[in-house]
């Protein structure tokens, strides 16, 4: 069976965001299975896309992104 083709994406994140990713991966991990930060990112993408598809949290996500954009400029 051929390997699933994946696209690579590089993004710049803050130390705080990296700490959130690390903490989330740790909390989702179990003794049987360690969860990577990449898996957390993929999960977040799926969750956000699903919620937006259902018309949920659009304004909340926009507010977070607007706040982050202002913080990035400062």
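-> sequence recovered:
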């Amino acid at each position: 069976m051929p390997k699933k083709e994946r696209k690579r994406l590089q993004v710049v994140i803050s130390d705080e965001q990296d700490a959130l990713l690390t903490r989330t991966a740790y909390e989702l991990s179990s003794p049987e299975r360690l969860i990577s930060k990449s898996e957390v990112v993929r999960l977040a993408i799926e969750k956000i896309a699903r919620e937006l598809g259902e018309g949920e949290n659009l304004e909340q996500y926009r507010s977070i992104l607007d706040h982050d954009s202002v913080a990035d400029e400062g």
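The chain has a mean pLDDT of 88.
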